[in-house]
Design brief:
The protein is built from one helix and five strands, in the order E-H-E-E-E-E. The protein is of the alpha+beta class. The radius of gyration is 16 Å and the shape is elongated. Bound molecules: acetyl coenzyme *A. This is (3S)-malyl-CoA thioesterase.
């Protein structure tokens, strides 16, 4: 079965954090994969990295440059890659890429990317200094 999304021009950057399958329950009324589902997967991937770096609770404070590059179809294998781009006193900028692969094909393609900003939080929900590495 062919895939008309073209050849991947690059390789994913970052650590593989999540791999999942886009299911019919994740579609919008038109039957395509809902962008909000993909954003949630990206948020989960960035949050996982943020939790490991901050060694505790954190929250998404901003999402910059969200780009939907290609559609995701039901049945696609979706893989989330995340990497820490920079860290401030309490915040972390985490670059996330989502790639999709038609389950009957071998090539994967970038489908979305964005820069997530997370802030480490204390028990009261206030910004918390990141621990030393
Ligand atoms: C996993 C989830 O819970 S997702 C749910 C959605 N997210 C939320 O509910 C978070 C809601 N937001 C908040 O509670 C607050 O904004 C907080 C607690 C995260 C931050 O409070 P603020 O008063 O903005 O804190 P403060 O001004 O001290 O900024 C903290 C850090 O975030 C950075 N920051 C704050 N807003 C932004 C922004 N829009 N873009 C980039 N960085 C930001 C600051 O530069 C600072 O970084 P640094 O300490 O590394 O220098």
């Amino acid at each position: 079965m062919g895939d008309d999304r073209g050849k991947a021009a690059k390789q994913p950057e970052g650590d593989l954090v999540i791999r999942t399958i886009a299911m019919p329950a994740d579609t919008n009324p038109a039957g395509d994969i809902f962008g909000g589902w993909l954003m949630a997967q990206m948020d989960l991937a960035a949050g996982n990295l943020a939790a490991a770096r901050s060694r505790g609770r954190n929250a998404t404070v901003a999402v910059d440059g969200m780009q939907f590059l290609r559609p995701v179809k039901v049945g696609d294998e979706v893989t989330l890659y995340a990497r820490l781009q920079s860290a401030g006193r309490t915040s972390m900028k985490i670059r996330v890429e989502a790639w999709a692969r038609n389950r009957f094909e071998t090539d994967s393609f970038p489908v979305t990317e964005a820069l997530f900003v997370f802030v480490a939080l204390d028990e009261d929900g206030h910004p918390r200094a990141l621990p030393d590495l």
